[in-house]
Design goal:
The protein is an alpha+beta fold. It has helices at 20-32, 34-40, 66-71, 81-96, 106-109, 116-124, 159-175, 244-250, and strands spanning 41-43, 49-52, 58-61, 128-132, 134-135, 138-142, 148-150, 154-155, 180-183, 198-205, 210-214, 239-243, 253-257. The protein contains eight helices and 13 strands. The strands form four sheets. Strands 4-13-9-10-11-12 form a six-stranded antiparallel beta sheet. A three-stranded antiparallel beta sheet has the order 1-2-3. A two-stranded antiparallel sheet has the order 5-8.
Length: 259
């Protein structure tokens, strides 16, 4: 379950499931307090797992099947804690909304999207707050994947004003060791950054005026030329740093734990 006594993000990868909203949230918790993640899940004598989330919800899930291991996220050689947590979230979805997930497997149930805010609340038992940076409205049409087509993004305020809010709110949340995530919209992103995707916010550097994030894909990327909105940002094992003034132009919004 935990082959590394101190879980970290170095080898974490989101799998084929569309659950970046969960992996980004649990990634924030791993970065803050790996021991808290370890306490969430225990292996039973029969091979099943007992999982208790910060909001008090608990679930027992059976051993992972080969198919579930192939579809779930990975921690490299550091244990099965991430796919076990994914299965636990999926199983809770099945129990709490049986009509919607009646024929779905537990891992399928987490592949239908979700919000980092709800996952932060589940993991911590605390409230959350959102900081919107852009707005996208539904057009009433759907794309080939069946998802609603959204309008082009519109900034919710001038860049300078949004940057000031990020410095204040995100800076304070991270200073207080709160979980913080950010998400992108459907518009074209800088090279190396995925659209419609959730990220862990790791650090705010007030002196450099930058935000450091982790991409659950765990990708590496090298920009061609000077880093920026047109060329992207140097990324290693999913970690990259963006100036605050550019962060508010790339990301759609931020969610963070309050208390």
């Amino acid at each position: 379950l935990f082959l590394d006594p101190t879980p970290d993000l170095d080898h974490c990868r989101q799998g084929p499931l569309g659950d970046c909203y969960f992996v980004a949230s649990v990634g924030a918790m791993v970065a803050r307090d790996a021991a808290a993640v370890q306490k969430m899940v225990q292996q039973n004598a029969d091979g099943s797992y007992a999982v208790t989330f910060g909001d008090g919800r608990s679930i027992t899930v059976p051993e992972l099947t080969d198919a579930e291991l192939a579809l779930s996220g990975s921690t490299g050689d550091e244990g099965l804690w991430l796919p076990v947590l994914e299965k636990a979230v999926g199983r809770l979805r099945q129990i709490e909304n049986p009509a919607r997930y009646k024929t779905q497997t537990a891992t399928d149930a987490i592949a239908h999207g979700g919000s980092t805010s709800s996952m932060i609340r589940m993991l911590t038992g605390h409230t959350t707050k959102s900081l919107g940076l852009k707005r996208q409205k539904r057009t009433g049409k759907k794309g080939p994947d069946g998802r609603p087509i959204l309008s082009d993004p519109v900034a919710l305020a001038p860049v300078e004003e949004l940057a000031a809010r990020v410095r204040k709110e995100v800076g304070a949340a991270l200073q207080e060791r709160r979980l913080v995530t950010a998400s992108t919209g459907t518009e074209k992103q800088p090279p190396g950054i995925s659209g419609r995707h959730a990220y862990t916010v790791l650090r705010f550097d007030a002196a450099a005026d930058t935000v450091t994030l982790w991409n659950p894909h765990g990708n590496s990327f090298r920009p061609k030329g000077e880093a920026g909105l047109k060329t992207g940002y140097a990324t290693r094992a999913g970690v990259f740093t963006v100036p605050v003034m550019e962060f508010v132009q790339v990301f759609r919004g931020v969610a963070y734990e309050t208390g």
